[in-house]
Amino acid sequence: MDFLKQLEIWAKGDALQGKIMFGIGLILLIDVIFMLQTDSIFFNGMLIPVSFLTVINIVYGGFLAFSRPKHWLTATENYKQNPAETLKKEWTKAKTDNRNYTMGKRAWLILAPICFASFFFLTDDYYKGLAIGLAILFIGIFLLDIFLHRRLKPYFNILQQLIK
Fold first, then answer.
1. Where are the alpha helices (DSSP H) in the chain?
2. CA atoms within a 13 Å half-sphere pointing along the CA-CB vector of 82
3. How far apart are CA 156 and CA 95, in angstroms?
4. Least confident piece of the model among 46-55, 101-110, 155-164
């Protein structure tokens, strides 16, 4: 498969994930509104991490949905004019993204169980809610990184072959 086709698949996949993330963010926003209206101390503890996950989904999802199609068009145009320079720029970006996703997944995979386990050792409802909220946050970000990284790998591999 050639570079332009793989670029298109990657960009369209990221744009679709962005739309899905945006939708999930809106659903989480309903949860946040519910948490704000309740008097539960447990939910008050969950409020900050779940709000942060909501913002990540809405903002980064919106960014992916709108920027990836533009990136695809720009990179395609640049490739037609200067293939070597475009490949170099794309390779640099893909290499950085690959490293970040790899390191990020490890961090989220360590932090989520620690937060979940801390739930059983805490006595205050606020901190129990915070622990579960952080576990949800880290699992949510972990899942985002998995999907983004899985989609990046074929694109990364073709760039790696073309750069050599």
1. 3-37, 41-55, 61-81, 83-118, 125-163
2. 7
3. 7
4. 155-164
Q: How far apart are CA 14 and CA 81, in angstroms?
A: 25
Token representation of residue 51: 């709000």
Question: What's residue 1's pLDDT?
Answer: 56
Q: Is the pLDDT of residue 158 over 80?
A: yes
CA atoms within 13 A on the CB side of 8: 8
Provide the b/e sequence for 14-43 (b: ≥16 CB within 10 Å). Answer: bbebbeebbebbeebbebbeebeeeeeebb
Q: How far, in Å, CA of 143 to CA of 109, rounded?
A: 10
Distance of alpha carbon 145 from alpha carbon 130, whole angstroms: 22
For residue 163, the model assigns a pLDDT of 85
Closest CA to 89 of 76, 105, 99, 102: 76
Mean pLDDT of 64-74: 95
Instruction: Say how far apart CA 121 and CA 32 lie, in whole Å.
Output: 25
Check whether 67 has a pLDDT greater than 60: yes
